[in-house]
Amino acid sequence: MPHHNSVLHAVLKLLPWDVLDAAIERHGGAERARGFSYKSHLIAMVYAQLSGSSSLRHVIAGLQSHADRLYHLGAEPARRSTLAEANRNRPAEVFGDLLAIMIERAHRGLRQAMDGVTYLIDSTSLPLNRYSAGWAQFSAQACGAKLHVIYDPSADCPIYAAITAARINDITAVHAMPIQPGATYVFDLGYYDYLWWANLDEAGCRIVTRLKSNTPLCVTEIRPVEAGGPILSDCVGQLPARQARSRKNPFSKPMREIKVRIETGKVLRIVTNDLHAPAQQIADLYKRRWAIELFFRWVKQTLKITRFLGTSENAIRIQVIVALIAFLLLRLAQKTQSQITSPLVFARLIRANLMHSRPIDHLHTPKPRATAAPGQFTLFAT
């Protein structure tokens, strides 16, 4: 019978290890390895995500029980205190640089074409316990962090991610995000900032978002719509010339408002700087926002980033970064086979077979049952 490395080994082969080595050198991390290599650290954290481990003890026990397979990965098991110290003290930027390169390469491989690219922007809350209050205090009773993401729904892949304390406003975070000229950006009311809209428009980007209920639009043109359809109105106009405290609105170009009734009966005021596309196309673009909500749900539930292995800001950052690395590894690994099309089913099979010796393209095939020798009794014979 041919030998196969473990499923974890096959998944980890998709990591660009040379990028990790370069990041370690760049951030001076080599001096802080202290006998526990960054490779062993990353493997332990990827194992934690793919196995669904809920504590450091769970991670260490799982790795120690597979010490022989860990050896073939070029890593060594660690003590709980060693892994906790590494998460607390090693620069998260090392893993952040690895994630950035992986996002760039994965996006290029997963996306079929870059024409007419649409990006979704949103954030999700990550509740933390009181031990993170030193950096993540949000209110008297709550602590938390936020994961800010730009997501490409066509590639099912994030293209940018940042982690902040929950008290950081989404607008503050979005001003640090890169802008791709000519792209379409779809986002919700959390990113209601005329200056940022002006920056997107200046870069030739199409904006699709919502207007607040109390924002007036000075209508200059009313366009016909189909009677009885979900599009209730389509008009062009100007946003208010002044903002709060009489500040001049930096976005002075005409905007288009499309009122659409969704399945629940609610009426949305969708606004865009695209004055030419069909109204239904704009409404459909806004509807694609649901894809990033599904992405957040998938990552939280499948990779278990609702429970954290540390409490410091650095430890939280490392775990979230590695969770996104694990997501990309799953997407890239799934692309190497064609039998399993559901990402959720594929992730579950990876978890169930993580330390088993079998090829990824045979995860869905049950292992052959051992056959008893002639005259030998077997309890499980059928």
Write the layout of secondary structure elements.
Blueprint: H1 7-12, H2 17-26, H3 38-51, H4 56-65, H5 67-72, H6 80-89, H7 92-110, E1 118-128, H8 133-136, E2 143-152, E3 157-165, H9 170-174, E4 184-186, H10 194-202, E5 206-210, E6 218-223, E7 231-238, E8 255-261, E9 267-272, H11 279-287, H12 290-302, H13 313-335, H14 343-352
Parallel strand pairs: 1-4, 4-5
Antiparallel strand pairs: 1-2, 2-3, 5-9, 6-7, 7-8, 8-9
Report on the structure:
The chain is α+β, with helices and mostly antiparallel strands. Among the domains are: 7-95 and 310-362, no CATH class; 206-277, no CATH class. The chain contains 14 helices and nine strands. It has helices at residues 7-12, 17-26, 38-51, 56-65, 67-72, 80-89, 92-110, 133-136, 170-174, 194-202, 279-287, 290-302, 313-335, 343-352; strands at 118-128, 143-152, 157-165, 184-186, 206-210, 218-223, 231-238, 255-261, 267-272. Helix 3 (38-51) crosses helix 4. The longest helix has 23 residues, at 313-335. It is elongated. It starts with 6 loop residues before the first helix and ends in a 30-residue tail after the last helix. The model is unreliable at 377-382 (pLDDT under 50).
The low-confidence runs, each spanning 5 or more residues with pLDDT under 50, are 377-382
- Strand proportion, as a percent range, falls in 15-25%
Distance between the termini: 24 Å
Q: DSSP helix count?
A: 14
The succession of helices and strands, N to C, reads: HHHHHHHEHEEHEHEEEEEHHHH
Helix content: 25-40%
**How much is the average pLDDT?**
88
Strand order, sheet with most strands: 3-2-1-4-5-9-8-7-6
Overall body shape: elongated
Largest sheet: 9 strands, mixed
Could you tell me the number of beta strands?
9
Measured on Cα atoms, how large is the radius of gyration? 25 Å
- Secondary-structure class: alpha+beta
